[in-house]
Fold this protein.
Amino acid sequence: MSQRRISIMMAALILMLLQTGTVFANEIHWSYDGDTGPAYWGELSPDWALCGSGESQSPIDIPSSAASNPADLMPIYGPSALTIFNNGHTVQVNYDAGSTLELDGETYELLQFHFHASSEHTVNGVARPMEMHLVHANEDGDLAVVGVFLEEGADNAVFAPIFDNMPAEESEPEAVADVMVNADDLLPTTQTYWRYSGSLTTPNCAENVKWVVMNTPVEVGADQIGTYTAIYDHNARPTQPMNDRAFMVGPQMEEPAMEEPAMEEPATEEPATEEPAMEEPDMLPETGGPASDVLNLAAVAGVLMLLGGATSVSAYRRRLQ
């Protein structure tokens, strides 16, 4: 198993524990109502303090005038067995390995998707009947979540196997025999989207989520919506303050790009150091050779350090399995 896949699996395990709130045997109960509802999540556990004090929380209300991105996501999603279960807070589908989304130069693997009613994000203060969240993680455990609004319309044949197999009671993950699903087919045809930095919408409300919210909703049938709301008719966190955040447009990679010119400064000084060498061309290979050898040795040392770190991390993760 590759180091990358182990990292993704660890992220998936942590995410599952965070979303279900079952980190320890004495689990903390949370809900969407009363004294265990969203207004009190931050008080239920010290580990959930961000739910009450965080400055970059999700979901949010999105003004329709907010800057949106063109349809440039191009996720690479493949088919997956329909492994579906009721985790006590939503109906979730665990996704087979290998489907990815590229965002800001990082690769995020699709782990699962689940549902909320009504939608958690709103547009101009208006909620849709449902929202689907496709949850991705990178090797570091950072998340990218694609939100898709579901609105009432014609029955949706692509979603039919999902709605038809939703467990009404809390259950364990189980693959439905001979049923496959492809997340690519669940996305809207028009794939422009809003982007912002936010959090999980469930405890512990960790603020390490890149949010992608599709502008265009997907139609599903009234009976299909009814199937879900008969199980969970209210599992949506209220919208949170935007504070000083801004909607993002285009790749968010400005900081690394700005650092590159600084790395090139020594190169701009080379002509001054090479002036004496121009009078003695036969010396150029000697000055270039040792420098290249030093750089090569430094590069090898750096690679060995990285490999050593990766090996130790890999061994540590194996001990956790």
